[in-house]
């Protein structure tokens, strides 16, 4: 059966840089350590204006195909629901309370970049 697989598909060279990682679906796979870690899309707020449009764009950038960050992403989505209830317009700047809540949430995101999920194969 292995004869049908091209030579390129049979192996992965682990020699070289230990910090080498491969980007895949907003995740990074480190083949040497065989784990996954995350990276997030954040908007540079040069004008310091936080709007519902910015928040929506950042939440949309939190792509988690495996559902491993569900508890983090659901907090952002609940925050977005609160904005809808407050009837805040897309380009309207947030009131101080909501601004502080979003800044606190964004401050936690970099901590998740260090989260490493080890590869695990279910076997019995």
TrEMBL record:
InterPro entries, alphabetized: Retrotrans_Pao
Protein name in the entry: Integrase catalytic domain-containing protein
Organism: Nephila pilipes
Pfam family, one: Peptidase_A17
Taxonomy, superkingdom: Eukaryota
